[in-house]
Amino acid sequence: MTTADADFPFTPPPDKRGIKAIFSEMDPLEGIFLFVCALSSVGQIFSGARPGSLEAVMPATFQNIWLIVFSLGAFIGMTGICWLGRRLDSILIESVGLAWVGLTLVIYGFAQIIAAFQIENVGGALMAGPLTIVLGIAFFWKHRRIQRVLDRLKT
Question: Which pTM was predicted?
Fold first, then answer.
């Protein structure tokens, strides 16, 4: 066991690191949101459909890049949550996924606002876009909390 593992506040003893322990440590809201993002991305990949606001404001190449980052972020985050190895590795993997999903949600939120203003739907611009941006910021917030814990381990 390394010093980082011994000092990490969320590391259970190695013999307790089973499936039951993983899901008891998971933040359920975070897990549900990542699962919904993963399902949404799979649906978009296989159907070829993209959100209308993205189609209205972004070129097709950027839509595909957005979808790839969104999909990878969701699946990386879920992999981190379900990781059976060291808890420190699990949290690092989860943190990467959270940052990627957060980035794509903020981009999507701004696309919603721009698209709503283009069709002169101010109510839509004031509701859907900011809510999506706030959700993206929440993912970044969790990513930042993890980074602060890791920074404390370095010192």
Answer: 0.78
Q: What is the dihedral of CA 6, 12, 16, 22, to 10 degrees?
A: -130
pLDDT averaged over the chain? 81
Domain ranges of the chain: 26-154
Region of residue 110 (phi > 0: left; psi between -120 and 50: alpha; otherwise: beta) = alpha
Nearest alpha-carbon partner for 145 in 104, 91, 105: 91
Does residue 11 contact residue 87 with C-beta atoms inside 8 Å?
A: yes
Gap between the Cα atoms of 70 and 74, Å rounded: 6
Residue 15 pLDDT: 44
In the numeric block, the tokens 């011994």 are attached to 6
Rounded to the nearest 10 degrees, how much is the dihedral formed by the CA atoms of 46, 47, 48, 53?
Answer: -120
Place of tokens 């949404």: 40
Count Cβ atoms within 10 A of the Cβ of residue 26 and give its class: 0-12 exposed, 13-18 middle, 19 or more buried.
middle
DSSP per residue, 31-91: HHHHHHHHHHHHHHHHH----HHHHHHS-HHHHHHHHHHHHHHHHHHHHHHH--S-HHHHH
